[in-house]
Design a protein that fits this description.
The protein has helices spanning about 45-55, 65-70, 100-110, 115-120, 130-145, 150-155, 160-165, 175-185, 190-205, 270-285, 300-305, 320, 325-330, 370-395, 405-415, 445-455, 470-475, 480-490, 500-530, 535-540, 570-580, and strands at about 1-10, 15-25, 30-40, 90-100, 210-220, 245-250, 255-265, 290, 310-315, 335-340, 340-355, 360-365, 425-430, 435-440, 455-460, 545-555, 560-565. It is of the alpha+beta class. Among the domains are: about 1-75, no CATH class; about 315-460, no CATH class. A hairpin with a 5-residue loop joins strand 6 (about 245-250) and strand 7 (about 255-265). Helix 8 crosses helix 19.
């Protein structure tokens, strides 16, 4: 290891920055230099500032060498610790700012090695503040209190991030935040590959199962110059806005393996194969089971996957399940799980199919929880359709609608576009002129068919290692992707996107995914230490740990100031200890019986 000095010329002035660097050898045998920690400028530092620099060094013994390199001469010792008499009315705790949650977010950022990665990727950009530190600021903000770039610029002084990152508050400019989005967004593939490797090193992820799904998020504005901003099927119920589709792949623990920002009119089935092929390039050609939902399980996709010998697990559309109604009603079901004597999960294996010399297993699954949920939704839609059709019948009888074409259109609108109500209602317009009536009939057999299909899934897989009892729990892991989407949109405020430039809109999604990776990292460390809180609840508890300036005046007229944090409660200290990221001791009150000199 050695100390590197970097000089930059700006507006006729020379600025000197320092970092600790080590020489490493790559797997290819090449010699490279890797930055261990970035120290920034070391001129005009006070003795307390040098203590913070010493804590960031790999070895505190490097501090005298670093001071000599920077031309700093420590002041001579002032003698033993002396006691002072305070004016109790002068004690003040001023400028409180949040410390606990941003400290945990920054520790997760550093644990994933994103600080060193971005220092290598964007460290050569000449900016007032290193872009790797700006990226850490944006990601931590997205994790703890998501805001716009202008909001981040105003939020930054209210936190302890300047002290934790070792930079002055006035070093950050608003344009740096936008510059960081543009620069970091160019390295998305490198960042994704780094996350996959780092997650494998930290948590031992096998990544033998990939969970894939697609969602959308909408823009605010016309977005005339953004080719990805298109109108399509809106999962956010905002068809009035242009949108962007987000394809996300996670492992069985919910950790992100890759994502892709796609045009807003992308169809689910079209995105599947290209996204998985790119994931295979990043993660290697190891055989892994890919799980996706019924919207992507087209025959063309499944045929291509069988031809390329890629194992998959998916559910098929309800129209295919309908062909097995007799087996669903009378077949031999195997109970996997039951509660209070009632089966909650049942499976029934169907004869396997052979296509392209590949055996495909078919498995019927019936879930009591899914059945209850789908039954309530179906009954609500059925009741609303009956109510709307009865209202339409009264309007036709009263002469409000007389044209047959208008009456048919109104009847179709009353039923809606949901598939489960198709074939249930039939109607006929009778009479002429003012004596027109609308006759509506219900198909009781179709209603019973729909009720029998509720909660039933037909799974198809080419995997031979999983038993019939394991296929349904494995498929249900797709809820991890749905949880990720809910976290991205709700807690991390992915939507809406206000950036009009395409590259910055993509960078907005990138930092949201990075913040999600931080959230999963924090939760995994917390759960593996025996905790049960979500990341959101954990950060809310730690938000109350704040850093402020403690000042008081002696009777001799001397004003003393210290940076001190509020003492964590027993619950907060237990959370920090479980994560392995306690509050730095330099911010905690010293024990005057053992370490009075630190005061």
């Amino acid at each position: 290891m050695f100390i590197r000095r970097m000089r930059q010329q700006r507006q006729g002035r020379t600025y000197t920055y320092y970092s600790v660097v080590e020489t490493v050898r790559t797997p290819e045998g090449r010699v490279r230099q890797r930055t261990i920690c970035y120290l920034g400028r070391l001129d005009n530092l006070r003795p307390p500032d040098w203590l913070r620099v010493a804590e960031r060094l790999p070895d505190p013994a490097w501090l005298p060498l670093l001071q000599q390199e920077a031309g700093y001469t420590p002041p001579p010792p002032t003698g033993p610790v002396r006691s002072v008499t305070l004016d109790p009315h002068s004690i003040a705790w001023t400028n409180p700012r949040r410390l606990g949650d941003v400290h945990v977010g920054l520790c997760a950022w550093q644990l994933l090695g994103l600080d060193r990665l971005l220092e290598r990727l964007v460290g050569r950009c000449r900016t007032r503040l290193p872009l790797s530190l700006v990226a850490a600021l944006i990601a931590v903000n997205r994790l703890v209190e998501p805001r716009s770039e202008l909001g981040i610029f105003r939020w930054w002084p209210t936190t302890a991030l300047p002290e934790l990152l070792g930079v002055a508050r006035d070093r950050l400019h608003l344009n740096l935040l936008y510059r960081c989005l543009s620069e970091v967004g160019r390295h998305q593939q490198t960042i994704e590959q780094h996350l996959v490797e780092r997650g494998r090193d930290l948590f031992g992820f096998a990544n033998d199962l990939v969970l894939y799904d697609l969602t959308s998020t909408y823009f605010e504005g016309r977005l005339a110059g953004n080719s990805k901003a298109q109108r399509g099927y809106s999962r956010d119920h905002r068809p009035d806005c242009k949108q962007l589709c987000l394809a996300l792949a996670v492992n069985r623990d919910g950790f992100p393996l890759g994502f892709e920002s796609l045009p807003g009119n992308s169809r689910d089935a079209v995105t599947l194969t290209p996204a998985i092929e790119r994931l295979e390039q990043r993660c290697g050609g190891v055989r892994r089971l890919v799980c996706f939902d019924r919207g992507m399980a087209t025959e063309a996709n499944l045929r291509h996957w069988r031809q390329t010998r890629r194992p998959y697990l998916c559910a098929v559309r309800r129209a295919v399940v309908r062909g097995h109604l007799d087996i669903i009603r009378h077949g031999p079901w195997q109970v996997l799980r039951q509660q209070a004597g009632e089966p909650t999960i049942e499976v029934q294996e169907l004869p396997s199919q052979c296509h392209e010399d590949v055996t495909e297993r078919w498995l019927l699954c019936r879930s009591a929880g899914s059945h209850l949920k789908e039954r309530q939704m179906f009954e609500n839609r059925l009741a609303k359709a009956r109510q709307k059709l009865a209202r339409l019948q009264a309007q036709v009888t009263a002469g409000t609608f007389r044209q047959a074409e208008v009456i048919h259109r109104r009847a179709r609108q009353a039923i809606g576009r949901t598939h489960d109500l198709r074939g249930i209602f039939t109607w006929e317009v009778q009479g002429r002129g003012a004596t027109r009536t609308l006759q509506v009939d219900e198909n009781a057999a179709a209603i019973q068919d729909q009720r029998d299909l509720q909660g039933v899934y037909l799974l198809r897989t080419t995997d031979t290692a999983l038993s019939a009892a394991e296929l349904w729990p494995t498929y249900m892991l797709l809820t991890r992707v749905e949880t990720a989407f809910r976290n991205l949109k709700t807690d991390l405020v992915l939507r809406p996107i206000f950036h009009h430039k395409e590259n910055r809109g993509d960078a907005h999604v990138l930092f949201a995914v990075l913040a999600y990776a931080l959230s999963v990292t924090i939760q995994l460390r917390h759960r593996r230490a025996g905790g049960a809180l979500t990341t959101v609840a954990l950060l809310e508890d730690l938000e109350r740990v704040q850093l402020a300036e403690l000042s008081f005046q002696t009777l001799a007229g001397e004003r003393l100031r210290f940076e001190r944090s509020s003492v964590p409660t027993a619950e907060q200290a237990a959370l920090l200890d479980a994560l392995g990221w306690p509050i730095p001791t330099r911010y905690l009150p010293p024990d005057l019986g053992t370490e009075p000199a630190r005061l």
